[in-house]
Amino acid sequence: MNCEHCGERPAEVTHTEMSGMEEEMKTLHLCSACAALQGLGGPPASPPIADLLAHLGGTQEKTFETDAEACEYCGTRARDFRKTGRLGCPQCYAQFGSQLRELLRRVHGSSQHLGKVYVSSAVDIDDTEVRLATLRRRLERAVEVEDFESAASLRDQIHELTGAS
Amino acid sequence: MSARVHEGSELDGQGLAWLDDPGPEHEIVLSTRVRLARNVQGYPFAARASGEERERLLDHARDAIASAEILGEVDLWQMSDLDAADRTLLLERHLVSRELILGPEAAAPRASALALSRERALGLMVNEEDHLRIQALRGGFQLTRVWHEVDQLDEELGLRLPYAFHHEFGFLTSCPTNVGTGLRASVLIHLPGLVLTKQIQKVLEGMGQLGLTYRGLYGEGSKIVGNFFQVSNQTTLGKTEDDLIEQLESLVGRVIGYEQQARSVLLREAPSILEDKVWRAYGILSHARSLSFEEMMNLLSGIRLGVSLKLLKSPRVETISRVMIYAQTAHLERAARRRLDETDADVFRASYVREALAGDDPSPAGGTGDDDGDA
Prior knowledge:
The complex is a heterodimer.
Chain A: E1 13-17, E2 26-30, H1 32-37, H2 49-55, H3 78-84, H4 91-95, H5 97-108, H6 128-144, H7 148-162
Antiparallel strand pairs in A: 1-2
Helix pairs in contact in A: 2-3, 6-7
Chain B: E1 4-7, E2 29-38, H1 51-66, E3 73-78, H2 84-92, H3 98-101, E4 113-117, E5 122-126, E6 132-139, H4 143-160, E7 165-166, E8 170-171, E9 183-190, H5 192-196, H6 200-209, E10 212-215, E11 228-233, H7 241-269, H8 271-287, H9 293-308, H10 317-326, H11 329-336, H12 342-357
Helix pairs in contact in B: 1-4, 2-11, 8-9, 11-12
């Protein structure tokens, strides 16, 4: 069946609504374009990375287009990423760092992580302030949801870091 | 070792405990979900990993799961050990993603697994798009609580599994749209009032401008049925987890307010029409002999609205949520103990819904005016 709105493209979205106060329930069969225009049915998918990449760079040097730089660790090439929108391994972030930074700013509005800091037991990161901030946020939340057991343990960890008794 | 891992348990009602606890704001919010994407150092991301690497990662994850105290008694299923019907069952319960259960040639991808606590809807997918997708689900609107659970599990797993973390980009993920916090929090919200009063588009656009996105019932790419919208944060980088959660909480809180207003307007301006719609929905659902999933969802939407506005006394919202799960095809097939083609499934669905609605007298206790007996 074709879209009931434009009558041209095939209908992909079925939208049923109890529309209009005096009408019966109404079912519309729309193509995704018309549905999107009406704000119905098809949620606007977040722009696929591949599309976004196509718009990046513009007249400047195109991002992720050169083939020179494959990830040393997993062999993912820039054009693989362009095609799939997925990176191959954690090392890719270092490999494609400068180009990714621009992309991340476009997607997230920032390229700087501000959330939890992961401290691997193997690595001793000396960033007490950040760790404290994270612990304090977790403590606040534990108290809010009345998880007093976690709260007590978090309080101990904070004391340990601040050197308080 | 502080969790007890049970491998390959028979599938029963796992992951559905939240149905019995509708939670805060359940007149409008069905459920709250939070997931964290995590990857482990030293392995390629799952899509690029060899079968052997995926196996090793699963072994590694299994040890970490067994040491996670918060999981308590935990079930672990490898997707390749389940038949297609069982895998679809888990999908219908929103416990696994399509990506986890569907590999090349419709077989389950190698070494992909689901771990799920028996005590609560908390667990993780292993070897999905990312190595780990830690997730929790609860009924109603309770973002802080669900995030707290996920965060605790994340802390415990992180002690055993060296996460891939970058000082600037945060937790590294296969797709850059998830990088940073790796956090996606979503609220499944029922907005018939805004749809009926035609304000929904404005509200959705507003949410979009404020950094939220929405999807259908089954996540990315799924369509909206029954006026149920899954609203979630769009970005994952550049904000703390708590800020992301708070922002979603406050914006969804506002949407709840708009929906309540829309419902009062409807009740005030067009009570008889509203009541008629609700009762028609009830009438069809309790008498139809064949129901497609979509038709059922749209009618359930009407009933849910009616129950919330006390135009109907029953069913309870718990029953409606239960029907939304159990009237899906894989669940119907399980009850029928056989494969059902579409026609059969519609017939079974109608019969299941009739049974679920039977027995209760839906007339409002205090009455909203007329004595509108159904029987």
